[in-house]
Amino acid sequence: MRRLLGIGSVVGLTLTAILGLFVTPPDRVMGTLVRLLYVHPSVAWVAYLAFGVTALACICYLWPRTRAPFWDRLAVSSAEIGVVFCALTLATGSIWGRPTWGVWWAWDARLTTTALLLALFIGYLALRRVTVDPGARARRSAVAGLVAFADVPIVHMSVVWWNTLHQPATVLRPSLASPTVSGSMAWTLLLSFVSFTLLYGWLLMHRYQNSVLESRLEEEGMEIALAERWAEAVPSGVGR
Amino acid sequence: MAEAVLLRNVVALAGRFPVLAGADLTVAPGQVVLLRGANGAGKTSLLRLCAGLLPVASGQALVLGEDLSLDSRGVRRRVGMLGHATQLYDDLSVRDNVRFSVRAGGGSARDADAALEMVGLTGRLADTPASRLSAGQRRRAALASLVGRRPELWLLDEPYAGLDADARGLLDGLVTSAVAGGASVIIASHEAGQVEALAQRTVTVAGGRTTEAVLVP
Amino acid sequence: MFRDAVLVAGKDLKVEYRSRVGAQQVLPFALVVLVIFAFTLDANHDLLQTAAAGLYWVAVLFAGVLTVQRSFALEAADGLRDGLRLSGLDPAGIFLGKAAAVAGQLAVLELFLAGGIAVLYSASLHGIVLLVLSAVLATVGLAAAGTVYGIVAAGLGVRETLLPLLLLPVVAPVLLAASKVWEITLQSGPGAWGWMRILVIFAVVYLAAGVLAFGPLLEES
């Protein structure tokens, strides 16, 4: 399964690159810049997907009936991938924005929300790093992850209002997602979505496997720790 | 009547370290039990577990009839713990500290004042900020918080440390009257002598496990 | 729950009254922030007047982070976290009490800062009803979110650096909405009420989150 996903994503991404770079036509307005279309939207999609999975896993961990280490591991695995893809989204968006809008950064609603989302989940990962006890870490970070995610709609709503009310809308008009898409472009776009999603699945499974191994290491340590703890009683010889 | 404390093969973890590694303990209502053992043997952890502060990783733990592996919160209001830390807010006066603690446990300000009287923290001393108390006075204040809450199970961790002869006598008196009122008491202490007069049983703790020692007549 | 909340809030405010950390450290800090902003904007009165609302809320936010840190630092001393857990107080009550105490301290601070922008930035404070109402809502939201993250970061050695990282992105909508209401009101513009909705939603969401989550978060770290 994992190998299949791996092969699928590598083949898919290679095809996307070939189609995107050589086969598809350049855009009438944006010229060859339009080729970012095959990277940016699908990377952004993976970032949102990953954060969504994390939030879902946090809910499942907090819900007493479904509480299991599985959800905690899934949450952190997905969050790590999400942070990487979210940063990539901002980077590719910025690269695209410079020639299109003339600025590296526009205070557009989607961009601002995404940046705050990245900050929220960097905080989530930082919190995980500094909490040692696995149980406490799982509980705290599940709450933090969920509460952070609950913030996203509020952030988005406020940012949308903010710039509909106070930003000159002209800068934002040539929107990122509206070059005319047709024929080979549409297929390449679709392919990029599919292959980036496969890549996400592949990375997720690897990262998940990692955390399983980590906790198995901890559990094996447990038996040794118990034995060592019992041994402490022997040299003193009290009560024996 | 059910046992006040019933532990069977209890394991408890601090991080990944098993502070309790299969501990057993039975305490009948109205009994005073002395815990013995070297530093780091698990005495404090045993007390913290009984107070519902340390989660049960495995094994069976019933305290005052409540199953700690199901709910560790219900028991907390009913036990009183006196530990190394005195749990005082430095900026508050002794009276405010004790009142807060007693009222949080469901008592009244009058219960708190009565408890202060019992431990001999009255007059000007009661209105002193906790930060200005001596170590012994801090322990008296902590003791007042405990007494004012009228716990059914007393968990005393090295209660004699830093107390002068007067205060030791006072503590013994309070323990005796609590036991007369039906409370159970677990005392962890290195010090021999004084405590053994109070305790009916001695339990030795080593390496996170417990062994029943010889019955004290 | 509410009895416990009153008890905890009373205790926290009493600690603050006795120690005066808020009055002697946080408040002067916030005022210094206002002065620093004036330096960076070249003490340009027109610019300061325009930016007054935003700068005001940034100062409130910084002071809020400090207040939340203080609120949990005082529980970190001498086994008090154990004390709170042993106390038998309802965790939801503890949350509401601590949040109320933080909100109370922030409210006082906001009064002084309002005086600060009136004097330093020559902002003319009118439309008092809107200003006060939005400040109350924003303060409740800040205190609730701050208290949730305060307990999340409590007991960790890196509390001081972690809390701002966790808290600032979360309260961004409050900052935005509150400074918009103030900006619009100070310049007598329309459309302030729309922003109130965000403040209400934020406050409700984080109060609910705190009431539900505080119990599990207070447990063993």
User: Could you name the ranges of chain A where pLDDT drops below 50 across 5 or more consecutive residues?
Assistant: 166-177, 236-240
Task: Please write the string of helix (H) and strand (E) elements of chain A.
Answer: HHHHHH
Largest sheet of chain A: none
Main β sheet profile of chain B: 6 strands, mixed
Number of domains of chain A: 1
Mean pLDDT of chain B: 87
Question: Nutshell version of this structure?
Answer:
The complex is a heterotrimer of chains A (240), B (217) and C (221). Chain A is mainly α.
Word description of this protein:
The complex is a heterotrimer of chains A (240), B (217) and C (221). Chain A is an all-alpha fold. Chain A contains 6 helices and no strands. In chain A, helix 1 (2-23) runs antiparallel to helix 6, helix 2 runs antiparallel to helix 3 and helix 2 (40-62) crosses helix 5 (134-166). Chain A is globular, with a radius of gyration of 23 Å. Chain B has 217 residues and is an alpha/beta fold. Chain B has a 6-stranded mixed β-sheet, sandwiched between helices. In chain B, strands 2-1-4-5 form a 4-stranded antiparallel β-sheet, with helices on one face. In chain B, strand 9 (201-206) and strand 10 form a beta hairpin. The model of chain B has no long low-confidence stretch (mean pLDDT 87). Chain C has 221 residues and is mostly helical. Chain C has one domain (2-220). The model of chain C has no long low-confidence stretch (mean pLDDT 89). The chains are: A mainly alpha (240), B alpha/beta (217), C mainly alpha (221). Chains in contact: A-B, A-C, B-C. The A-C interface holds A 62, 116, 119-120, 122-123, 126-127, 130-131, 133, 135-136, 139-140, 143-144, 147-148, 150-151, 154-155, 157-159, 161-162, 165 and C 148-149, 152-153, 156-158, 162, 165-166, 168-170, 172-173, 176-177, 180, 191, 194-195, 198, 201-202, 205-206, 209, 213, 216-217, 219-221.
